[in-house]
Amino acid sequence: MMGDGKIYIPARRKKPERGTQVIRVSEDAYNTLVDIYNESSLSMAQIASKIIVESIDRIVYDKEEN
Q1: Residue 59: half-sphere exposure toward Cβ, Cα within 13 Å
Q2: What pLDDT shows up at residue 65?
Q3: What does the alpha-carbon distance between residue 50 and residue 54 come to, in Å, rounded to a whole number?
């Protein structure tokens, strides 16, 4: 249900990694991160990590029914 404050993403599997990983984000996502960075004392990596970890309870996995 859209508009319920949740983040809907398609489900799939990948194995967890250890250590620091690099990901690519869209231009819009990067520029939003820059805006947050400019108002924060945290590094960009710390901000992105905090947003991801603290958003987990808002994620809804859209699993295809077979």
Answers
A1: 11
A2: 59
A3: 6
Question: Following DSSP, what letter does each residue of 27-58 receive, concatenated?
Answer: HHHHHHHHHHHHT-SS-HHHHHHHHHHHTGGG
Structure tokens at 64: 């295809």
CA neighbor of 48 nearest in space, from 66, 28, 26, 30:
30
Per-residue pLDDT tens over the stretch 21-55: 899 999 999 999 999 999 999 999 999 999 999 99
Contact between residue 59 and residue 9 where contact means Cβ atoms under 8 Å apart = yes
Name the residue type at position 64. Answer: E
Our CA dihedral for 16, 18, 24, 29, rounded to 10 degrees, sits at: 80
The reported pTM is 0.73
